[in-house]
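Q: Convert this sequence to structure tokens.
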Amino acid sequence: MEKNILSRFLLIVFLFAGVSCSNDDVPNDPESTVSLNMLDEGHGKTWLGESDVYINDANNFYAYSCLIADVGEAGGVGVTMPPKLENLVHEVAVTPGHIYQVFGNEAVREFPSGARAVAVGAEYYRFFVVSPILVDDKSTGAIVKYVLVSPDTKGLPEYGHVIGKVNYVGEQASMELPEGAECFWYGGIPEVFDVSTDDGILKMTLAKTPTEYNGVQGNYNVYVRLDDVYTSVVVQVK
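A:
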């Protein structure tokens, strides 16, 4: 009897040691990690956090408004990585061992170069599929772990940062641009400003006199992208 108890104890110790060793290369889950039994739409329809992502009857992650990126195989939700914005979709297969990112549609902007970026200060989900949930050998969902993360600002100013206020024709607001930055603005700005990005400096020179009646007064936004993140800077016309 004592021999059997000892054998079982040693077996438990051995199995525990084996599990611990197998996790040595798996990044630790961040403190904010949430573990979720995500049931598919036929068995409860669990949403991922505050997003509109759920698992549909085809065993795919689906979102109406959010954008999903399947990053591929990873060691767990603790694997840090930049935003992956090349192949954003509304529906993608549920694959155990894969890591995904979920972005709000309004947080991602495509620039004239074709490059996409996430807004400074925006939050998005990073989640990892641990395993399927099986009932009688039939998948009813997936066990996932997720965290809410934000992109590295890479030195860009906060979203909506005011770079200057101008009142008279010839007055200028400016901002030094990081190397490799791309700028974008909507059509109304050239009607009011002379805009230049020469020598790595964004310069906006007021070219039209603001009056109470001509609609020139207001805030003008320029979007500045650096790699996978962007911000909006503002020039105010009084």
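Confidence is low (pLDDT under 50) at residues 1-25.
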